[in-house]
């Protein structure tokens, strides 16, 4: 069975987006972080990405552009190459290459993806989707990039989750730019 993994940035005070839905505060690139990000974006040849509609639209507006390919070529190549799935009831078409729209019942659709062939499916951004899938207990791993910034207000990654979700840390890594990447699995 494919593993469903979250990879998201959060602030020290626990927000994945600020009060204006901006996530630019999380972009702290230096050579070490860029190398790490590029290796993550390459993924495996049989990996996939899963997005909610809002994150999908934001990513699709940037990563296929010449600007993205110039600024971060390795990351752009990986993200553009991988198969992408977007959960949406309102999207009728997806122009970003290798994208499939999932319109059915969330638990059923994601269950099918997990049972399909391939390796890891990674969710990036997509806070509403993360909270819904966490409530359904469909997420196998949470990799959180803890960015050394305090936002004061914003949206938490698990907003709307109505019950406790116990997690166990399995690994962590600190970076020179202050980011700490910590990975957790459900208990």
Task: Supply the key terms.
187 residues, alpha/beta, two-stranded antiparallel ribbon, globular
Protein model, in words:
- Helices cover 30% and strands 29% of the residues.
- By secondary structure, it is an alpha/beta fold.
- It has a single domain (4-186), classed as Dihydrofolate Reductase, subunit A (3-Layer(aba) Sandwich).
- The strands form two sheets. The protein has an eight-stranded mixed sheet with strand order 5-4-3-6-1-7-10-9.
- Helix 1 packs parallel to helix 4.
What is the CATH architecture term?
A: 3-Layer(aba) Sandwich
Mean pLDDT: 92
In the predicted model, the low-confidence regions spanning at least 5 consecutive residues are none
Beta content: 25-35%
Along the chain, the helix and strand elements come as EEHEHHHEEHEHEEEE
Tally the beta strands: 10
Q: Within the largest sheet, what's the order of strands?
A: 5-4-3-6-1-7-10-9
Strand count, sense and barrel status of the largest sheet are:
8 strands, mixed
Q: Quote the CATH topology.
A: Dihydrofolate Reductase, subunit A
What radius of gyration results from the CA coordinates?
16 Å
CATH superfamily: Dihydrofolate Reductase, subunit A
Alpha-carbon distance between the termini?
19 Å
- Determine and state the CATH class: Alpha Beta
Query: What is the overall number of helices?
Result: 6
Structural class of the helices, strands and pairings? alpha/beta
- Roughly what percent helix? 25-40%
